[in-house]
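Q: Please design a sequence for this.
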């Protein structure tokens, strides 16, 4: 993986950071120098991107922004809200300067955010909109994610869409992104296909997604399932496993989200119809930029990075950045994950996929 600083600068410029250059000063007197400590709390390890991309990207960007004097204190909740709460307390006890949190449970994390606020530590909600007194929010346009996924299903089914039975494997109810993604998907699917079964997936667990897909197969009949909407790549892989174990001769269109490597490989082989590519580089680098700007009192830069406004159940007009997304299919792998140096052709095109890669021009 070659996620370069030059790429980061270009992406930051595209989002309107002052002069497109990280570290631009403004009239405010910095509250703190470069000895910044950013606390980073991520929710699970089942989602490949968090360990492989988000953490190393944020760590590197903080270092770049602080002449290698800043650091990231990182913890992963491993799908346990109790653990994430304890980790929040650790961050507060360690007196970090700012906390970036991807909440496992948006509502349950609110008291922890309040404790950080009481301790004078700003909190930025990362990737998922947490409740409580957060200072900013950065994520992708999650309703658009669902729209892109739903639209892909309808396009894949074509003229048969109106009578086609679709199974929906949604994300975790505790994740506020789930409602937004589902809302977007429903806007494309509800009047276009027959949603035969719909399930939520506790903690985004692939094991639960696989079990729910098996339930749908039993209820509807394998041959009657025209497509499976799944909210993420982890769920997509699980649904595909269930379909194959049930004896499907050809996997119907299955959606995903995150552009995990195994999902991109499934797209290449034809097992997964599409995934949603959300630039990890853009989200992670801008999150690091927001965190450092907040701590150093660079209000002009912070405002430039948070031009959007979002409401949560506990707070209105949260300064936010919503990063755009794109549908990744066989047709645009070169223009997405390869162009952004997320993966190389060698990463994607294993010997098993050599013929499939050649068929779509990946060499």
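A: Design:
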């Amino acid at each position: 993986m070659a996620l370069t600083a030059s790429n980061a600068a270009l992406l930051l410029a595209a989002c309107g950071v002052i002069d497109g250059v990280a570290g631009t000063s403004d009239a405010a007197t910095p509250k703190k120098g470069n000895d910044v400590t950013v606390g980073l709390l991520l929710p699970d390890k089942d989602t490949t991107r968090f360990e492989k991309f988000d953490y190393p990207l944020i760590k590197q960007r903080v270092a770049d922004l602080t002449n290698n004097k800043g650091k990231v204190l990182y913890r992963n909740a491993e799908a346990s809200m109790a653990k994430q709460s304890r980790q929040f307390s650790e961050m507060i006890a360690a007196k970090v300067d700012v906390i970036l949190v991807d909440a496992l449970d948006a509502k349950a994390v609110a008291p922890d955010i309040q404790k950080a606020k009481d301790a004078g530590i700003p909190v930025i909600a990362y990737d998922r909109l947490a409740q409580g007194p957060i200072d900013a929010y950065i994520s992708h346009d999650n309703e658009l994610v669902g729209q892109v996924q739903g639209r892909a299903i309808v396009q894949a089914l074509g003229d048969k869409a109106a009578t086609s039975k679709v199974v929906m494997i949604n994300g975790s109810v505790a994740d506020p992104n789930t409602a937004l993604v589902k809302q977007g998907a429903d806007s494309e699917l509800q009047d276009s296909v027959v949603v035969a079964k719909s399930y939520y997936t506790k903690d985004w667990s692939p094991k639960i997604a696989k079990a729910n897909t098996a339930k749908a197969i039993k209820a509807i009949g394998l041959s009657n399932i025209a497509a499976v909407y799944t909210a993420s790549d982890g769920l997509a892989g699980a649904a595909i496993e269930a379909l194959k174990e049930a004896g499907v001769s050809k996997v119907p269109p299955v959606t995903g989200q995150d552009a995990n490597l195994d999902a991109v490989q499934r797209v290449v082989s034809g097992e997964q119809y599409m995934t949603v590519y959300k630039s990890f580089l853009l989200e992670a680098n801008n999150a690091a930029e927001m965190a450092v700007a907040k701590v150093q009192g660079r209000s002009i830069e912070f405002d430039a990075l948070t031009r959007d406004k979002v409401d949560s159940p506990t707070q209105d007009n949260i300064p936010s950045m919503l990063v755009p997304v794109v549908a990744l299919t066989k047709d645009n792998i070169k223009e997405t994950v390869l162009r952004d140096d997320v993966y190389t052709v060698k990463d994607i095109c294993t010997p098993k996929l050599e013929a499939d890669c050649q068929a779509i021009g990946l060499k």
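Q: Thanks. Anything notable?
A: Residues 1-30 have pLDDT under 50 and may be disordered. The CA atoms of residues 98 and 291 lie 6 Å apart.
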